[in-house]
Amino acid sequence: MPTNRVHDCTICFSSVDGNKEYLRHIRQVHGNDRLFSTHCPLCDSSFIFTYSKSFLHHFRKHLSHPLADQEEPPLLFSNDDQMKVDNCNEFEHELLSFEIETRDPVEELKKHYTGMLLKLREGHVLPGNVMKTISLSISCLLQTFSDGLLPKLNLDIDNKISGDYNQHIENILFDISRNEHSFISSCQMYFKFVKPIEISLPTGGKAYYVPICEVLLNLFQKNDLYNCIKQEKHYISQFQGQDILYHYRNAEIGRQHPTLKKKDNCLLLQLYSDDLGVVNPLMGRSSTHKLTTFYFSIDDLPARHKSSLNTVHLLLLCTRNDFEDQRNRRILFRKLSEDLKHLENNGLILPGDVNPTYFTISTLCADNLAAHELGGFTCAFNYGYCCRYCLTNHRDMKTRYNETQVLIRTTTSHDLQVKQVRNVPGDKKIYGINEESILSILPSFHPVISLPPDIMHDILEGVMPKLTACLLHTIVSSRLCSAAQLCRRINKYTYGVNDKQNRPPPFKEKDILDERVPGKAMEKFCLFLNLPFILYDIVEKIPYWFLYEELREIWDVLYCDYPRKSWLSTLEETIWEFVQLFQTIYPAQFIPKCHFLIHAARNIAKYGPLKRQMNLRYEAKHHLLKQIANRCNNFINLPYTISRRAQLRQCYELMDNNILKPDGVSGKFCKRRTISFKQTIQNAFHADYRFNYGEFVQCVKWVTLDNVRYKIGDFFVFHLMGGEEIPLFVEIKYIINIEKEWRFIVQLYDTVVFKQNLWCYELSVADIITILSQNDFVTHRAEDCYTINNLKYIRTPYRLTLVE
């Protein structure tokens, strides 16, 4: 509802006295917000402004209108009622006056300047010495501004009061940006900077630990995060005892977790560990600095928000050499263990709560090498007992295709084997265990149940590229296509709008002959999904193509958001058949990751959706740390430099009132008459009884809702039909905003048939256009529709489930 006078801030909801006070508040308090997001309180438009400059320009246009400065027309009250209203207004005015009088402009200046430096330095990852350049430039700018303003006010340029005040402001700017210590002190005062704790190691090195309790308290100061987690916990509870495994809490280990069983008000923390290589550009690759990193994230966040990098937080950082030394490891995790025990036993009283909220570990994600090292298992994967799920020797892996043929590790058997290895070190080779896990001092951690598989390394960078390379080599060897022609097919293939960002690098003939697939994990995945379309005309002639179909069937369950327990027996049989056939047809390409695949069905039952245990987003966080190291160009004490700057970056991300990305951000609004649409769309307007569309509607080309981007031309699944859950697809034609609600005008498509050799659905256009809301979509991921020989084909990202 538009108003002529603003009483509350539309971002932080604090009281303001009129439009000019609101404008000043937005400019000074929220002008540097990282996630600036607000609507205009003076007009009917639902457009969300994400840039403060454009919003201030828009708001000043309203102020230039004479009606904007007028008070709202008084209501007709009785004398007594009017007296009460006047008294109330007088009290509010006195309160606002008191707030203005108690406001310290110098403190506000310090806070805004510190926030500006944070936004510039950490938002763009600039070197620390840029602060001095900024402070000097602002000082010169203020002096120039004063020299121009004073003559306008009929004051002398050499006015002593003005000169003293400018000097005072200049001293403030230089005090904050004098050095790194003074800047960090200001960040601690105004933005709750969490300083890493230095840990001195016996070898003389130093590690840096970020206090997890302080970070959690800062995170839960953000209402949007806490409310989102509460809603997600309630949503997770709906699947307890159901066939669907939506979350770790619904799986076997989650239901048996001792802390979750004892304490209802408990949140889960997911840890991650990996090595990180940073190269000194002045000395080349021979001077690579290897670091060991630990991160954490809140496991109870919805999947759509866990994909954001600002939900991944640094926990521990040290050099690889220091981490490898046995004397250092216990000291490294001592402080973390103390904090985790405090979180499990005492908890934290979060803002707005009376009772404490407890925290405990769910899983520790890592690649196979890091998981084996942290769990105390053997770290060699080319001989011995190199599987952390079962006791199978490397030489026997090619003949074991099912879990019934192997001996599964359990917590009880593992503890007995660790004792045996401790007493008789020569028995390490018998059990594939080198030592007791270095993380055994952490509460609720056990190496058998706390180290889940990572389908990114096992499948996307393991089995998938192996099979892709084998099939491409088979095509060339069977003379269906030459290596040069096959490279041209792959390199000239036109990827869809959504697939284009993960387009694989150019293929070379040598890659096909050497049976390897270049690129990153998502680029290999993109090639694998589009392989049937690339080879459309010869796909039925390719020998052993059934292996591709079986792996796609396996992947659709492994990557599913809502896997069912009833699927797991079929999944186990499919994996058994795939592993046996792959080993028989391509024995030289069989790797331990193919053996790890036989445990996938049981791991889904243990951990829930394996998609939530992927390392993909954690590894994306490495890019920031590498960028910090290269921009700072200081390699003397790299863990200190990176940990300090990473915490400053976190401080920058938490300086706004909200941490999650703003909702309803869209493209430019465009008014359109309802009668200008096609008659079928006008009929859809009339059929939608929820809204009165009126004469005009506001259209946009794209909009972001719940961290999902919808744009015109995207395809989504909106319904699953029948017991086989056949997906029905829609294409977004228009995106409209009506009464602050988003609606999608969509074209329906009929699902003709499922093409198994292409592993996709064939579509035909239905003569139906309807209007849907965001909640009507089954999936919240846009898919590309490919047209081949005048036929439309589309795939689903994973196996879909009808969730009631």
From TrEMBL:
Taxonomy, superkingdom: Eukaryota
PROSITE patterns linked: ZINC_FINGER_C2H2_1 (PS00028)
InterPro entries listed in its UniProt record: Znf_C2H2_type
Positions of the C2H2-type domain: 9-30
Descriptive protein name: C2H2-type domain-containing protein
Species this chain originates from: Rotaria magnacalcarata
